[in-house]
Design brief:
single chain, Protein Transport Mog1p, Chain A, seven-stranded antiparallel beta sheet, globular
């Protein structure tokens, strides 16, 4: 029996399993986007290719809030990283390293915060807020990175919520926290 990960995203999110090679699946996901179908297809192609290039992303998503006329305002990437350690040991090791500012290839980290969060039903969670820019004149991107250590799993889940819209930070964070708190494995066939 296999398990599927349930991701409870808010209504303004469109998410999919990475790898939209099948035209019917691509069309199904594109149809869930509100607004301009051509723009939706371009967003899907770009984000799905980016997720595939990363190599370990399982689920990608785009936040297209009605309040912003369904224009993309944030993206989601969910990774499942295998581990052979018990969740509590992996979590403790991870938390010890949280103070160290991460390096993000090709960018400059301009701000960094990190802290453990309250444990969810799935297991312990740590939050990193990483703000990057490629150069001083470039677009600033903030990533809310939630690392979840499922107590009954053999993987660590990493959810990155990225946005270049700082005014929407609190709204994105509220959505992200609700999503992380709703994570669950569902037994399947």
């Amino acid at each position: 029996m296999s398990r599927a990960l349930e991701l409870g995203l808010g209504e303004d999110w469109v998410a999919w399993q990475v790898g939209l090679d099948d035209p019917a699946r691509f069309a199904d996901v594109a149809a869930r986007f509100p607004g301009d179908p051509g723009a939706a297809q371009e967003i899907l192609r770009t984000l799905d290719a980016r997720a595939r290039d990363a190599g370990d992303v399982r689920i990608a998503g785009v936040w297209v809030p009605a309040a912003a006329d369904h224009e993309p305002r944030a993206v989601l990437m969910l990774r499942g990283l295998p581990t052979d350690r018990a969740a509590h040991k992996e979590y403790r090791r991870f938390v010890r390293g949280l103070r160290k500012r991460p390096e993000v290839p090709g960018t400059r980290v301009v701000d960094y915060e990190a802290a453990p969060m309250p444990e969810t039903a799935l297991g312990p969670v740590a939050l990193q807020i990483i703000t990057t820019a490629e150069s001083p004149d470039d677009l600033v991107v903030t990533t809310l990175r939630f690392t979840v250590f499922p107590t009954d799993g053999d993987e660590v889940l990493v959810l990155d919520f990225e946005s270049a819209y700082p005014a929407l930070g609190e709204e994105i964070e509220a959505d992200a926290v609700a999503t992380v708190e709703s994570l669950a494995y569902r037994e399947g066939a």
